Structures are given as structure tokens and as C-alpha cells.
TrEMBL record:
Keyword Transferase: yes
Designated name of the protein: Uroporphyrin-III C-methyltransferase
Keyword tags: Methyltransferase, Transferase
Keyword Plastid appears in the UniProt entry: no
InterPro entries reported for this sequence: YeaO-like
């Protein structure tokens, strides 16, 4: 099984993080580049601006957000392939800035990547 972690970018790096990838389109407020300790900032895999603004981290829109974001991921294969290659090479931690730890793009992305790995993508 793919070793993919999901953590807030505001949390300190952990020894088992592996490659740390920020998956937000916008840089998180109050976090320095040094403190983020990133391997990569993959803006292109983040939800589009329209989808992000529509969702607004509203849990009532969560199911539809997941569907729309997965459709965006399927239409944007290059950053997905880049992340899948990283996962195949070792542990990857997807970082996000949202306060909500259950309803954010990194949660959807991790599940999407695991599913792709499980089905031989």
C-alpha cells in the first residue's frame, strides 16, 4: 500500500514525513519557506480557483467538492503522475493549510492517489 500521509503545513515536520509536498494553490499565511520544509510545492494539483472558492470549506458541499476535484485531477494527469512517481519512490506527506483536517483537498488527493496505486496506475 502506498505510504501517503496528510498533515497541516502548520504542524512541525515529522521524521517519517518522507517527501513533503504542499498541495495548496496559495502559499499558507504565516509559514516561512524554511519552516515548511518542503520537497515540492505542487500548485498545479490543487483545486482550481473557482472550485476552491465555491467549496469554501463548507462541509455541506463536501461530497460534491470531492466529485468535482476528482474530475479536475482526471483532466490534469501530469501533476498526478508526478506525485504517483514520488509515492512509488518512498513516503510522501501531502501538506495543506486549511483548518479543517477532514474536509480539504489533501484528504481527497491522498485517497485518489491510493486508489490509483491499488489499481496499478
Amino acid at each position: 500500500m502506498a505510504d501517503i500521509h496528510v498533515r497541516r503545513v502548520y504542524d512541525p515536520p515529522e521524521p517519517d514525513d518522507g517527501s513533503r509536498v504542499l498541495v495548496d494553490r496559495l502559499w499558507p499565511r504565516g509559514v516561512s519557506r524554511d519552516r515548511a520544509s518542503l520537497t515540492l510545492w505542487l500548485k498545479d494539483i490543487a483545486p482550481g480557483t473557482g472550485l476552491r472558492q465555491w467549496f469554501g470549506h463548507d462541509p455541506a458541499r463536501w461530497a460534491e467538492f470531492q466529485n468535482r476535484y476528482i474530475a479536475e485531477l482526471q483532466a490534469n494527469p501530469q501533476p498526478v503522475k508526478q506525485l504517483l512517481d514520488m509515492v512509488r519512490a518512498g513516503t510522501v506527506t501531502l501538506l495543506y493549510g486549511a483548518r479543517d483536517t477532514q474536509h480539504n483537498e489533501a484528504v481527497v488527493l491522498a485517497a485518489y492517489l491510493r486508489n490509483r496505486m491499488d489499481h496499478g496506475a
